[in-house]
Design goal:
It is a single chain. 37% of the residues lie in helices and 22% in strands. The protein is built from nine helices and ten strands. It has two domains: 197 residues, P-loop containing nucleotide triphosphate hydrolases (Rossmann fold), CATH 3.40.50; 70 residues, no CATH class. The strands form two sheets. Strands 6-7-8-3-9-10 form a six-stranded mixed beta sheet, sandwiched between helices. By secondary structure, the chain is α/β, with parallel strands linked by helices. The mean pLDDT is 91. Helix 8 crosses helix 9. The structure holds adenosine-5'-triphosphate and magnesium ion (MG).
Length: 274
């Protein structure tokens, strides 16, 4: 499958005029400004942008954990949706893994299924085959604090995939992985995405990762976060690892890097100015 599955269906997600202002003790902070995007059903869209540009804030809003400013419009499958209604509509892996320290790995993995009312035995049956795929076999009965950072991240990713939803939001899911595991997980994720026809929005700081995985790459501006560039990635799938050094790949990378660099410099200046 390449790109949107059904062009007659409404986009899976349509955002219009989405802004977010925080009112903290230090004054007002505009985190997001007039974001407008459309994500097609079955698309894999990656998001890059300087630290603090509002990527996680955007995901929190899409997951129903935060409200946008008034005037924003969020359409899921053509239907308008707002904060509390959005909870549970998407599978969300937050930037921090949020594993519960008192639950074993297996019980962390099946938690969202249990919250949905699926009996433990049935949830375990669904989870079991994934332990091998995620390289966690033998660690099912460990507690999160007995795992490495990369393993914890894989438990959180596994939990997100067990929670089957039309839209999956992954906030830097591979950030804590070593290069080899990361590239294995990237290929695994593409395989899952193609077999299960999921729609994925994926935040990363790694430009290679953004291009290698995405149908499109969204580059955000420094705060306030806006969409600076939407880049189509017309590379054929399946994508072999050698593609990372192909001239087509390098040309795309050059465009993304140029857009990001400009914004990263602005973002550092913001931090320096306080
Ligand atoms: N609950 C909050 N209250 C006040 N300000 C917040 C809150 N959450 C985020 N912010 C601010 O909003 C801005 C965007 O934060 P966000 O976490 O979305 O950035 P990000 O793009 O995910 O950064 P990173 O790449 O470092 O994860 C930051 O300036 C941050 O300080
Ligand atoms: Mg973030």
């Amino acid at each position: 499958m390449d790109g949107p599955a059904d062009s007659a269906a409404p986009p899976m997600l349509q955002l219009t005029n989405l802004s977010k202002t925080f009112d903290s003790g230090h004054g007002r902070l505009v985190a997001l400004e007039r974001i407008g995007i459309e994500i097609g059903c079955g698309e894999f869209v990656t998001v890059v942008g300087p630290s603090g540009c509002g990527k996680s804030t955007l995901f929190n809003i899409l997951a129903g954990l935060a409200e946008p400013d008034t005037g924003a419009k969020i359409l899921y499958n053509g239907e308008p949706r707002m904060a509390p209604e959005l909870l549970g509509k998407v599978a969300f892996m937050p930037q921090r893994d949020l594993l519960l320290p008192w639950r074993r790995v297996v019980d962390n993995a099946i938690l969202p299924l249990q919250v949905e009312g699926i009996p433990r035995a049935e949830a375990l049956k669904r989870a079991q085959p994934l332990f091998v795929e995620f390289g966690l076999s033998g660690f099912e009965r460990h507690y999160p604090q007995q795992l490495s950072g990369g393993m914890r991240q894989r438990v959180a990713l596994m939990r997100t995939f067990l929670f089957e939803r039309d839209l999956t939001l992954l906030d830097e899911p591979f950030g804590a992985l070593d290069a080899l595991t990361r590239s294995l997980m990237q290929r695994w994720l593409l395989d899952i995405w193609q077999r299960h026809q999921r729609t994925i929005l994926f935040i990363t700081h790694d430009v290679d990762e953004a291009i290698f995985l995405g149908d499109r790459v969204l580059v955000m501006t420094a705060r306030p976060g806006r969409i600076k560039l939407v880049l189509d990635v017309p590379l054929a799938r399946p994508r072999p690892p050698e593609m990372l050094t192909s001239p087509e790949f390098i040309a795309l990378k050059r465009q993304v890097l140029a857009a990001i660099e400009e914004e990263s410099i602005k973002s550092f200046q913001q931090v320096a100015e306080g």
